[in-house]
Amino acid sequence: MIYTSKPEGRRRNRPLKDYAGIRFGRLVGVSLVERDTSKENNHLWRFVCDCGGHKTARIKNVRGKKTQSCGCLATETLVKRNTTHGLSGSGTYRSWKDCRARCNNTNDTDFKHYGGRGITVCDEWDDYEAFLRDMGERPDGLTLDRIDVDGNYSADNCRWADAATQANNKRNNRTVVIDGIRANLSEWSRWLGVGHKTLSYRLDAGWTEEEIKQGAKSPVVL
Predict the structure, then answer these.
(1) Which residues contact 95 (CB under 8 A, 6 or more apart)?
(2) Do the beta carbons of residue 14 and residue 42 sit within 8 Å?
(3) Where does the pLDDT of residue 18 fall: very low under 50, low under 70, confident under 90, or very high at 90 and above?
(4) What is the H or E stretch that residue 28 is in?
(5) I need a labelling partner for 64 at 20 to 30 A (CA). Which of 5, 12, 71, 199 fits?
(6) Please, how many CA atoms are within 13 Å of residue 127, restricted to the half-sphere of its CB?
(7) Helical residues (DSSP H) of the chain, grouped into ranges
């Protein structure tokens, strides 16, 4: 009796994809190190990193962004975190942290005056380094002030200001625009030589800019 057997089934080999020269994060493929013979096709490749280092890693880890560098990225992240932590005691950092708390933390005692009435911090300032780049270090004796008290915290609406400037810029100080210049009622009262209540009455009565200037006791010098 003659026994015959069927030929063993052969697994079809998929063509090996060449990753040489292809970038994944900071890594660029160099050459295949070891071919994975399983169905996973998770081959081992050698990569060169932007920093000049080399890394051998499984291709699925690289493509899935589990491995993005030779290790330098993790080191840089750690250094950055430690650097930020080192700045956490600075006045600039506290100003950044406090403005975000006033706008985002419902438990903050000042939230009702800021986030509670729609004041926000611009998206760019989610990053402290962006805030520091836009505003610079906080000068001694100054604090963060919004130019438009009804506007948001952003580079074009913030400045470092002293206590007197901030006091003149409170919401309960009425602002007036004359000749294109915006100032609060107290400042215009002083410049025009007109009493605060008198000037307020004239504005409420609908006086024009020219009538207000003509009714001034002092020449308008700005």
Answers:
(1) 138, 143, 144
(2) no
(3) very high
(4) strand 27-34
(5) 12
(6) 6
(7) 59-63, 72-86, 91-104, 128-135, 163-167, 185-192, 196-204, 209-214
